[in-house]
Amino acid sequence: MSRHHAPEEHLSDERAETLRRRLGLSRRRLLAVATGLAAAIPLARPAPAGATSREVLIPPGKRGIILYTVRDAISRDPLSTTVPSGFRRVLEALSAIGYRQVEFAGYRQHANAEGGADLETVDGARLLRRWLDDNGLRAEGNHGFIPGSWPLTAADLDRFKRALEIANILGLGHMGTGSDPTGSAYKADWDVAAEKWNELGSIACQAGIKLYTHNHDAAYAFLLDSGPLDEQGRPTRSSGIRKLEYFFRISNPRRVHFEMDIFWAHVARFKHTAYTAPDGSARTDVFDPLATVQAQEKRFPLFHAKDGDANPAVPNGYDMVPFGTGDIDYRRFFSRLRAKGYHNPMYEQDNAPGADPAQSLAYAELSYRNMATLRG
To answer: Which residues does the UniProt record annotate as the domain Xylose isomerase-like TIM barrel (predicted)?
Structure first.
């Protein structure tokens, strides 16, 4: 894909005024933000030459954002700025942009925001639900508590059930974590992780919620599952199966689900390309994120739609950028999914916050527009 970006379009006077009001900016401040974005951030890359307009790949009701992207706004003291701050005002701003889904990344905000610092309570969840409903938003998931211990302690089980109660109040269809099932490379540890996740998934299912794990590139590295053994009796070589692919096989498909972070899956494609086979030979295998999803689409109800500019000079091979402005081919990815309307893509950008207090919300505006114009 070409690395030449399309020029930033100019906002109409009416659209600029609407954006200014909802972000709480002066006209001068909005001009500075818009000028900075125009200089630094492109709109979505144009369709290939000869392409015609086809289906909308992310329907309006499926355009979502994980609130980690705007965590600076949620955690900011609302008394310190006119830019939306705290859950209520940020949810209002995201709804005004056009988002219809959100994914939580915890339930804490600044103590001076309406409702107080900690909304991870029954009363806090009811307050959040009212703000969601008032703004026509649906919460699809949360990166929250997953017990680390196994077997489960009574305290961990109680906390997990409280998290499910809060999820039900919020109307979440899914509950999960931002971490891999285990950070280990060894088969035995993934066996234990599957046992735990199968049990937790069954508990979540009884509450009407799908349990999911969100994964980074390390989960797509190769499993150490064959000899010779090291001094601690652990395998040192691989049969060629990737860690998460093994977890797919041994976890219950009706109880354990996944959220592919498409950026990190492409990082895995860049980084995790070789392994040492049981006979000691070096083998090459390039990861295919799309094929991984296509093999079992219904286990991927959620995506993180995070974009990146290819940069082989950095360890991950990509620099994070707003959705639709990078080199990850989202047109190809979404157009080749078969379960149309099933998946919930959540825009995420880890580096959206910046010195400018309006930056993360301005990036959310830009990324929403690029989601809305993505055609297959």
So the answer is: 91-347
CA distance 232 to 225: 14
Inter-residue contact 86 to 113 (CB < 8 Å): yes
Residue 366 confidence (pLDDT) above 50: yes
Work out the mean pLDDT of the chain and round it to a whole number.
90
Mean pLDDT of 177-205: 97
DSSP codes, 37-74:
HHHH---PPPPPTT-----BSS-GGG-EEEGGGGHHHH
- Dihedral, 300, 137, 197, 306 alpha carbons, nearest 10: 50
Residues 6+ apart with CB under 8 A from 222: 185, 238, 240, 241, 242, 243, 272, 275, 285
| CB atoms closer than 10 angstroms to residue 345 | 25
For the stretch 121-164, pLDDT in tens is: 999 999 999 999 999 999 999 999 999 989 999 999 999 999 99
CB atoms < 10 A from the CB of 95, how many?
18
Structure tokens at 87: 């859950």
At 54, the pLDDT band (50, 70, 90 cuts) reads confident
Looking at domain 59-372, its CATH superfamily turns out to be Divalent-metal-dependent TIM barrel enzymes (3.20.20.150)
What is the pTM for the complete model shown? 0.88
Domain coordinates in residue numbering, the chain: 7-40, 59-372
Residue 47: pLDDT band (50, 70, 90) is: low
User: Is residue 76's pLDDT more than 90?
Assistant: yes
At 200, which amino acid appears?
L
Q: What are the Cα distances from residue 338, in Å, to 51, 286, 293, 297? A: 21, 23, 10, 8
Encoded tokens for 111:
């103590």
Q: Cβ neighbours of residue 366 under 8 Å, at least 6 residues apart?
A: 37, 41, 43, 322, 323, 324, 325
